[in-house]
Amino acid sequence: MSEKATFGAGCFWGVEARFRELEGVLDAQVGYSGGNVDNPTYEQVCTDRTGHAEVVELVFDPARISYEALVREFFKLHDPTQVNRQGPDVGRQYRSVIFCHDQNQRETAQCVLTELDQSGRYAKPIATGIEPAARFWRAEDYHQQYLARRGGTCSLSS
Fold it and tell me: What are the catalytic residues?
């Protein structure tokens, strides 16, 4: 039986590409979540007035990859200490956030976040939000598998 996981780590193109590489991830779609506008468009989300974050919604097989492994990968893919930005992308839509689909996901995400925050790995405190999963709005077709369709590579940090 598959499960869902939803992560926001800046621009969703690279995040989607990286997660698609993981054994056990069955599907990944980019979209928007956590805001107050129904069926938002990319242009609306880019105004930073909808409250949505750019996210990737994963479908994964927990028998092949654990939710904890996904959370750990999420923290590797971006700088979780940045507030409302990733690199040159600035705005609440680029915030670091984990949208949890159940209490087990919440507990796992919080445990990993606390462990990493206390590890000394980061010079600043982790700013990643952990929130209940909100409605996922699939992004426009031209955003889906954007890097793969253009032969691009992921430039996210590891």
Answer: 11
